[in-house]
User: Fold Diguanylate cyclase (GGDEF)-like protein/PAS domain S-box-containing protein from Qipengyuania citrea.
Amino acid sequence: RAKNEAKGEPCFFDDEMDAAERDRRTLERDMRTAIEEGRIDIAYQPIVCVATGEITSVEALARWSEPDRGAIPPDIFIALAEDCGLIDELGEQILRRACIDGLAWPEKLKVAVNLSPRQFYSGMLTDTVLRVVEETGFPAHRLQFEITENLVIQNAAEAFSQLEELKSHAIGISIDDFGIGYSSLSYFQSFSFNKVKIDKSFVSELDHSKAAKAIVQAVVGLATQLSMSVVAEGVETPLQRQMLEDLGCSHLQGYLISRPVSASAISAMVISEAALLPA
Ligand code: C2E
Ligand code: MG
Ligand code: MG
Ligand code: MG
Assistant:
């Protein structure tokens, strides 16, 4: 190695990169197989209404685990699926599964599905969504999509026109992780979102940061004026819940209320109408 360093050849780093690249390729191969075999699972996390304490919707969160690797975080495998061209197939699979699971739940319960910016690239998203809705019989008006701000910056006009089309079929559109991306308040002039989800980083800072509190307050004010509901993500403590309620957040989501759980666990929760927000 010393010899190579002397020649200025970064041989050590080459070896490191080869190993990383090999790992990436085996992960990609395993994911391809998991998608083909329909082994990507979904956990659902309830979102509750502050006013009634009821679950109004559940967010579908993709889950993948392998016996030898354990659970692979969705941030990792979703990004990988985007990079290797599998995201449209994976996205459709997740949507179909969420629609089928959703049929077992009461009509008033909405199902939120995350969309990756790449799913907008093909121009086929609306067709795919309408086809899945048709094939599964899940009513479009019970479907909500969560998109991050980063979607909108890529190709704003094109993205907004696809969102309008989805919305014209009564599908709800939420802006996710609000406040941490390349946010621009002008998005709210271009498109009327149904929901804003305040990123959990603000929620976790709430009890010791004056700024976080002011930001939540400002987003709630904006949302109220624009008739959007506000979901606070990542609510973990009773104090956070209290502060968010006092600040006028209409909906809460987080480990304090419930972790993401199986579809059958959601059925059990809604059947028993268990109070997820005890007074
Ligand atoms: P997200 O859409 O913002 O989802 C919220 C994340 O916060 C989830 O992480 C959830 O498990 C976690 N979370 C919920 N409550 C709490 C809490 O009280 N405390 C903390 N610390 N975390 C909480 P997860 O499941 O690891 O997903 C991470 C991200 O991966 C998601 O962020 C979303 O961007 C992406 N993702 C997950 N499933 C899908 C999918 O089906 N499609 C796409 N395109 N992206 C997905
Ligand atoms: Mg989300
Ligand atoms: Mg989020
Ligand atoms: Mg996120």
Remarks:
- The CA atoms of residues 105 and 267 lie 6 Å apart.
- Confidence is low (pLDDT under 50) at residues 1-8.
- The pocket of magnesium ion (ligand 3) is lined by residues 176-177, 197, 233 (CB under 6 Å).
